[in-house]
Amino acid sequence: MVSSGVRSDEARISLPNNPGLRLIGFLHGLFGLLGSSGELPQILSRFLGDLGEYLQAEGGFLLATTDPTNLRLLAEFGAPFTEEAHDQRAISAFYDELIRKQRPALADGDTPEARSLIGVPLVTEKRLIGVVVFFRHDRLPAFVAEDIPLLSVVAQPLAIHLENVDHARVTSARRAELEAILSSMEDGLLVVDQMGEVLSFNHSLERLSRYSAAELYGLSWEDLLSTASRHFETFKSFTRALRDGQEFSARCPGSLKTNDDQEIPVSVNFNTIVEDKGTITGGVLSIRDVTLETQVDRMKDEFIANVSHELKTPITTISGFLQMMISRDMPRAEMFPLLEVLKGETDRLHRLINDLLELSKIQAGRIRLSLRKFQLEGLLKKSSRALRVRHEETHRLSIDVTPVRGMILADPDRLTQVMVNLISNAVKYSPEGGMVAIKAVRQGDWWSIAVSDEGIGIPPEALAQLFTRFYRVNENQTAGSGLGLFITKEIVERHGGRLEVESVEGKGSTFTVYLPARGPL
Ligand code: ADP
Questions:
Q1: Residue 508 beta carbon below 6 angstroms from any ligand 1 atom
Q2: By alpha-carbon position, which residue is closest to atom 23 of ligand 1?
Q3: Which of 30, 191, 341, 436 has the most beta carbons within 10 angstroms of its beta carbon?
Q4: CB 321 within 8 A of CB 342
Q5: Residue 439 pLDDT > 70, yes or no?
Q6: CB of 482 sitting under 6 A from ligand 1
């Protein structure tokens, strides 16, 4: 036992005495550092420290460079390299050798802190990555040419390591950029392989399709998308292009089949992925939800049908009545009620045409306000009077303004239009005998003007769309274009205000206009 213990001790002691093994052991430890986990600055400091100690240097540093004029300190060890040391003349020739000629160099410094310098360039494939420099004070002997090979041996793996770290940093920055772009996209994005199987996708696709990421990986794009028969050919061409490795790009409408069995109308953009050598490695599908566009299209169609009907009804009445008056020799007294009807019908036509003109003005951004200061109560009374002919026999109306003589800076004609729209809706969508209450209150710099009715109310699910142009809760309700509230809201917002609605189905609705009392903000 004793003898074996002695042998093992001898073996351990003999290592440092063997310079070759000692160097191998040292290099092994040093390169091992590069592969260790941890932050780069810490790894480099330890690397430099171990190497400096081995070289019996007083201090050292590692400068990284993207171009020879731009060097930045990446790590240092031991005594600092002073400003004076940097300024000495010998240094510039030393750097010239290291950086421009990319060769190891030795130098005798002029300052006691850096009497002797040794350095190596860090080069990969002719590209300079940085330099490593060590220095000794004047109490130690100067570095010698024999110290250079060790530094050169160390320089190459260090250069490769720094380049790899840089590559990894750039790659991860690119990946992060790409991920940020993909996840900020509203369109769903699907990447498929040549068999059409899902390889990757963005968050929008998960959200749109309501599939989890794990579920999506098991699908092919054809499990997710379908199309009308007239677009089958595009779908088939994409599958063929993927399989046969042909370039392909097309857009066509389709439906996205969601996890909860819904069909979302979408527009699909197909593209094959072409790699450097022209090889097709898969495809990308960008999928846009066109639900809203489809809805607007449908509303427009309904609107055209509706407007045609709205135009035709009064014109039929007007022409019928006129015909009657022409063909019969009517006494004046009998004519009166007919003339009232004719007036009502022409008013109706007038309103519709005005709404259409307003819509086109809004869309062209051509609504101009003509601001004036006036008493709000007067305007509310005038607006309700404009409607009186139509509602006074059927509805009760109240106006309450606090403070009574309160002023507002606004466009009086436009505000009248807003009030007429809201009051006439309150009348139109509430039964005979109902109460329509207008209540205006000034609070600080704001007026709130609420128009409440005891009418049919609005279902909660319709509230979000109420101010969209052409939107009508129920097409068959009463005559209307679905433009009034849209126009009202636009005018209110042009004044710097807002329009809100509260409603209980079957009980009634309150539309409240909030306006800045001192004019648009
Ligand atoms: P229109 O009355 O011409 O249809 P609007 O834009 O003025 O168009 O109104 C849009 C829809 O909002 C109406 O079709 C109706 O369904 C609903 N609506 C508006 N005001 C009221 C109200 N006071 N009570 C109930 N429903 C209303």
A1: no
A2: 426
A3: 436
A4: yes
A5: yes
A6: yes
Rg, C-alpha atoms of the chain: 42
Question: Ligand 1 centroid vs 137 CA: distance in angstroms?
Answer: 90
Q: Which of 53-57, 444-448, 451-455, 475-479 comes out lowest in average pLDDT?
A: 475-479
Q: H helices then E strands: how many in the chain?
A: 16, 18
User: How many CA atoms lie within 13 Å of 399's alpha carbon, on the beta-carbon side?
Assistant: 15
User: pLDDT tens digit string along 162-209?
Assistant: 988 888 888 888 888 888 888 888 999 999 999 999 999 999 999 999
* Beta-bridge partner residues of 268: 252, 287
DSSP H or E run through 91? helix 89-95
Kindly state the helix (H) or strand (E) to which residue 283 belongs, with its residue range: strand 280-289
What separation in Å is there between the alpha carbon of 422 and the centre of ligand 1? Answer: 9
Encoded tokens for 337: 């009620």
Instruction: For residue 437, report the distance from its CA to the centre of ligand 1, in Å.
Output: 17
Whether 481 lines ligand 1, by a CB cut-off of 6 Å, is yes
pLDDT of residue 251: 95
Query: How far, CA to CA in Å, does 213 sit from each of 3, 86, 267, 288?
Result: 66, 57, 22, 19
CA distance 169 to 163: 10
